[in-house]
Write a structure and sequence with these properties.
Its EC number is 2.1.1.297. By secondary structure, the chain is an alpha/beta fold. It has helices at residues 2-11, 17-27, 31-42, 47-51, 75-84, 100-109, 121-131, 175-178, 194-202, 222-231; strands at residues 53-56, 59-62, 90-94, 113-118, 137-140, 155-160, 207-217, 235-241, 246-252. Strand 4 (113-118), helix 7 (121-131) and strand 5 (137-140) form a beta-alpha-beta unit.
Length: 254
């Protein structure tokens, strides 16, 4: 059966057909379920939604339909956060999507007070399951409006995987993204930095002294993002992973 699955996936244009076939066959409980999964994948459904989970820093993160699929490059944001604040006691995963970033930070830090938030009800439901093992709390609302007020001035790591695709470039994304993921998780406004600006403006008041806020962005947006952080009183620098093609702006509170 494996060979026929590989052929079907390769014919559909799946670049890593062999790897995907192994994953589907390992996940499916029956041949009929495997055939149904292959059919959905051939029709264009993202692999993570076909099997129901994504791997993120060694964790199996449940991904429900309509929820942003965590990207491997975002693991770099988690690495930077753990390196900058290894002793953080309070962590916030803003624009949390599936909650992958929060779950990974909690796994790396150990005992931590974890809060996650998203404006999308589907994301909130999904994230609750993924951060439950860490005792995480998930809130629904628009950025900081969702968070308990008692967190102001206490956050050691504020990870905000904000949408940063310019509005007129949404259609250029792979169909797996713009057809199956919520627009609110992708669209960052005219230049892609609308939500980042809001995080930079309001984030400092939530940080503990020396706390850090980390935001993923693109290479060409990075200079503007750095300036935005600096103008809001943060000491900012850019971390880059050429391997993952990841660009993370890090802002540290005084």
């Amino acid at each position: 059966m494996r060979d026929s699955v590989v052929v079907a996936l390769r014919t559909a244009g799946c670049v890593f057909a062999e790897d995907e076939a192994e994953l589907i066959l390992a996940t499916a409980r029956t041949p009929a379920e495997a055939a149904a999964m292959v059919e959905r994948r051939v029709a264009g459904l993202p692999l993570e939604l076909v099997v129901g989970w994504a791997e993120f820093r060694g964790l199996r993160i449940t991904v429900d339909p309509g929820v942003f699929v965590p990207r491997r490059r975002t693991e770099f944001l988690v690495e930077q956060a753990l390196a900058r604040a290894p002793g953080a006691g309070v962590v916030v995963d803003l624009c949390c999507g599936s909650g992958a970033v929060g779950a990974a930070l909690a796994a790396g830090l150990g005992r931590v007070e974890l809060h996650a938030a998203d404006i999308d009800p589907a994301a909130v439901r999904c994230a609750r399951g993924n951060v439950a093992a860490a005792g995480g709390h998930v809130h629904q609302g628009d950025l900081f409006e969702a968070l308990p007020g008692e967190l102001r001035g206490r956050v050691g790591i504020l990870a905000a995987n904000v949408p940063y695709v310019p509005s007129d470039e949404i259609g250029l994304l792979p169909p797996e993204a713009h057809a199956y993921e919520p627009l609110t998780a992708l669209d960052g406004g005219a230049d892609g930095l609308d939500v980042l600006r809001r995080v930079a403006a309001d984030g400092p008041r939530w940080l503990a002294p020396g706390g850090c806020v980390l935001v993923e962005t693109s290479r060409h947006q990075a200079p503007t993002a750095l300036d935005t952080f600096e103008r809001n009183g943060l000491t900012a620098h850019l971390a880059v992973s050429d391997e993952l093609y990841a660009h993370v702006v890090v802002g540290v509170a005084p």
